[in-house]
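Hi,

I'm pasting everything inline rather than attaching a file, because the server keeps stripping attachments. The sequence lines come first, and each chain or strand is labelled.
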Amino acid sequence: AQSVTQPDIHITVSEGASLELRCNYSYGATPYLFWYVQSPGQGLQLLLKYFSGDTLVQGIKGFEAEFKRSQSSFNLRKPSVHWSDAAEYFCAVTPRSSASKIIFGSGTRLSIRP
Amino acid sequence: GAGVSQSPRYKVAKRGQDVALRCDPISGHVSLFWYQQALGQGPEFLTYFQNEAQLDKSGLPSDRFFAERPEGSVSTLKIQRTQQEDSAVYLCASSFGGSNTGELFFGEGSRLTVL
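And the predicted assembly:
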């Protein structure tokens, strides 16, 4: 079955520290991959996406993600977090063959310690 | 408008009532998606439109849920005979192409509480 797993429900990091949020997917073939962020009272916003090519993709707000085919992973990273990064982060996938549904993971809530 | 607009933002319904949730996508966006997000969960796909055609409704949880987009722009998600398990945030998203061609733009959602 197609699925997206975010194993960390809640992560707390200190402001200025580095961040890595994990995402694993289970698909028959490499899907298109996304990370979205949901801040309180705001709609989901796309951070970055991987379609093909360079496996290290850069996104907005200083985020990056690395696609590792061998591990079926697409982890999100940021070298130094800011208090404004506190939010819910969702990994998402969609099959290359379909222009239909995007499947979201259950999310990781990020808290920032002052 | 500049973004995806959803109304109402908050809706409280008594069990058994019918509700209608509206989504006004970004002008010119071909694709429109509805998602259901329960508390503490990720969004779950409900249905997808390309213009006025409903191409995928595999995520609708029961025949009490119905969505339409008659003119290929505004969409309405209707829930008949609401149940407590329908309580969730209903998200609408639009995109210029399909989901695998680029970014989905989400509205802020309609929070439904069924008492």
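The longest strand of chain B covers residues 88-95.

If the labels don't parse on your end, tell me and I'll reformat.
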